[in-house]
Amino acid sequence: MIKKEMIAMLLAGGQGSRLGVLTAKMAKPAVFFGGKYRIIDFPLSNCINSGIDTVGVLTQYQPLKLNTHIGIGIPWDLDRNIGGVTVLPPYEKSENSEWYTGTANAIYQNLDYMETYNPDYVLILSGDHIYKMDYEVMLDYHKSHNAEVTIAVMPVPIEEAKRFGIMITDDNGKITDFEEKPANPRSNLASMGIYIFNWKTLKEALITKAEQPALDFGKHIIPYCHEKGSPLYAYEFSGYWKDVGTLQSYWQANMELIDIVPEFNLYEEYWKIYTKSDILPPQYLSSDAVVERSIVGEGTEVYGKVYNSVIGCGVTIGKDAVIRDSIIMNSVNIGEGVSCNKAIIAESATIGDRVILGEGDEAPNETDPHIYNSGLVTIGEKTVVPGNIRIGKNTVILGNTTSEDYEGGVLKSGSTLIKAGE
After folding, report:
1. Of 104, 268, 328, 349, whose CB count within 10 A is highest?
2. Rounded distance, CA 357 to CA 350, Å?
């Protein structure tokens, strides 16, 4: 029988609907971040840096990009004969087949996988946060307090606390109560969605509550353990942690990487962030090119000017183009004379010559103002924008568009242009 002290279960099935067209064709954890990474690289790198060599990745929504990226786990040194990384999609069972309906239901459907390793502890992670954390330190805390469940928490400003699951603790860190998105929070310790369970405690809770529709950790499993009297503790984390669940927070987290002294350093020797890298030639900057305060990925050719931006790999930026405060993902082609202000352009998009992105005053987006806001221009994967078009703020474009789609060559602020069939 194989025996592992702690295994990790990484929930990566999320659609990430608040990222709009960026997740139209891929799961949120597969979204590009910081020049050459994908969001899932961060929790996976944390696992290997924390000495955890057995990780189950639970996928569901649009998993193709994610599966291709993870492969057999070589970049994270997780290609192992025993353990390593295993992608766990929902699968056909003889009696009843179902999608993963909640975070805990996904874990419940993989009890057999966890049983294989007979672990003492199971670490539950979410695949869509940007942070560095040593899970071994959290495990030491869990053991020293004789906890059955330890929840990683982070202090947040009290006015923001109502957006989170909030833990109320005694002086020793023991959780005495918790509230899900409380109107009047009694504490500012927000759950980070990172849990360590004793395997026996987790297994019993999952089996007992299995019939619960959309079985969820915050709503069902944690309350069940609490009611049963299992010792629950809060582990306070003080490092950098970002939930990049909205376009604004995603844009902001990327922009923070280019600060002169970034709060979140991608290049620390002792805590490397690993990713699947293609072998590409180095960046090429022409004699007229200007690049200031930006990250530029390998294989990218710059003939224009780039300021305060995060540029992926294999991008072409044409002559006289000016890119400011933008995120441009891999393999995007930007034509000559383009002006681009505060845009997020997804992979393999093409922007024609002399296009202006992000002009004029802001107006609320006509279809999804809660998604497309903050003055951003969002352009989906493989989208084509023809030359000589002017595009306003809080706009979104997806599909192979032609000049006929733009009345008078303009897409005014707050417009949504999504071609059917895309």
Report:
1. 328
2. 13
pLDDT digits (tens, 9 = 90+) for 238-289: 888 888 888 999 999 999 988 867 777 777 776 777 776 677 789 999 999 9
- DSSP letters for 110-133: THHHHHHH--SEEEEEESSEEE--
Residue 306, pLDDT above cutoff 90? yes
DSSP 315-376: -EE-TT-EEES-EE-TT-EE-TT-EEESEEE-TT-EE-TT-EEEES-----SS-TTTS-TT-
Beta strands 149-155; 189-198: pairing state = antiparallel
Say yes or no to pLDDT of 62 above 70: no
How many angstroms separate the CA atoms of 392 and 148, rounded?
A: 53
7: CB partners within 8 A, 6+ apart:
52, 54, 55, 56, 83, 114, 117, 119, 121, 122, 123
Q: How many CB atoms lie within 10 A of CB 191?
A: 21
Q: How far is CA 223 from CA 165, 175, 228, in A?
A: 12, 11, 9
The two three-digit tokens of residue 303, written as one number:
């003939």
Structure tokens at 81: 């004969």
Of 422, 421, 417, the C-alpha closest to 391 is 417
Determine how many CB atoms are found less than 10 A away from the CB of residue 83.
Answer: 18
**pTM for the structure as a whole:** 0.87
If phi over 0 gives left and psi between -120 and 50 gives alpha, with beta otherwise, what is residue 59?
Answer: beta
Question: 121-126 and 6-11: which strand pairing?
Answer: parallel
Q: How far is CA 281 from CA 191, 246, 259, 284, 294, in A?
A: 42, 33, 26, 9, 19
